[in-house]
Amino acid sequence: MAHSLASTVQQLFPNLQLPVPRPESLPLEVRSPIDGSVLARLGQASAADVNLVAQKAEEAFLAWRRVPAPQRGNLVRVLGEKVRAQKSSLGQLISLEMGKILQEGLGEVQEVIDICEFAVGLSRQLYGLTIASERPDHKLLETWHPLGPVAIISAFNFPMAVWAWNAALALVCGNPVIWKPSEKTPLSALALHALLLEAAQEQGIAIGGLSAVVIGDKSAGESLVAHPAVRLVSATGSTGMGRKVGQTCAALFKRPLLELGGNNAAILTPSAELDLALRAITFSAVGTAGQRCTTLRRLFVHQSLYDTVIVRLKAIYESVPVGDPLEAGTLVGPLIDRQSYEGMHNTLDRARSLGAKVHFGERIALRGSDSFYVRPALVEMKTQAGPMLEETFAPILYLCPYDSFADAIAMNNAAKHGLSSSVFTGNIYEAEEFLSAAGSDCGIANVNIGTSGAEIGGAFGGEKETGGGRESGSDAWKNYMRRATNTINYGKTLPLAQGIRFEV
Ligand code: NAD
User: What dotted CATH number matches 46-260?
Assistant: First the structure.
């Protein structure tokens, strides 16, 4: 079996260039969560390697910022075309390396294609403003310029899309990019990045320092974040990681774009379409085996519905197909690794010790002792407390009854994170209240759909311990540019702003 998954990767990407391990440092062992087998052993970047890559990016910036933005967009257009042509192989690689089911792997690759298309359109916009000046014969403008090298640090659970959300925009905005992917999913990074190299070669663009991948663990990430050439650090991962990266950025006056953990909630009201709501809740709670930043982790159910909902959800959870993510019909693949399984196990024990009723959550022996398949867990809590207020990156859905809608909103907002939230209701007053200034305090607030599965067109990100960053659609591109305010005097006198008189 070990041989077969590694050889599947080779068959999918026969020409993939992998960094060769060096005698002086330990190789990075890449394992498949499907059966725990080794897929590859890779050489890791040293601090000196990171330094070199960052210096090259600084040099590349000087040329790339002068290339007209629509031409920069052309590189991203060709990248998108190549990704489309390879969608099936890339989707399979995500499943093999990260463990999400093939449908979700393909969906992630589609996100890469979608953001490339978005960025190509954007490359003909990048618009500024003309602002009315208070002075005669003056023009006041706001213009946008490339910022400088962008570091992209990505998490294991979206091994391709996170880079694309950032890189497609950063490149059209005129910035070189340096990618430090998760040490758990470097092959997905190398396979996707190879397509950018091909696209550049076909277009006669000397890639040089324009884009690079740095393979390694958090120490490679730390070297990159601290490098003076890097102007923006887009970091996706745990809140603990973001706290450290944010502090380094603050000390060095770099721009941070933090996309961190989530502890997302939904409110199920008496007027909800129950069938629709239960499908949405299940997809959000068990999809990607509970390993999405937007995974639904807390469900507040109106007390009049509570008994019905728990019976129906138990029936769904009992039969939801858990298994090999590449097999048709599987809806829940494995957890990423043993540490993740132990985290889930310990959290369920803590919930039990608080008096919670735990349904399911047991390990399922499927592909040997080095793979970790679990039946997603439902946890009935009387009140919101303990581990329910933390993010455990596994398929655990806590249920809590509520009485008044105001209480439900307060419970939604009581978490430290502020990423995604939903309300299921047919009541316009509740829907609008949830979306209002006094409603959900999250970056994403939905009505009658689940917490996960965002489209690329909107800005993505969350508040509080989710980090406050926004990436992907809307005006998130502004993160990757520096804003200049320009005042032009086309008159023959020098009137000062605010009517100040200063005659010399
Ligand atoms: P992680 O924090 O362990 O690692 C993420 C990345 O950060 C990895 O590449 C890692 O090597 C790097 N890293 C860790 N410490 C670092 C440091 N001090 N300096 C620089 N780089 C460092 O996260 P993970 O386990 O890969 O991913 C799961 C977490 O990511 C969850 O909390 C999830 O909610 C979050 N996540 C958030 C979003 C979002 O958009 N908000 C998206 C995906 C995942």
Answer: 3.40.605.10
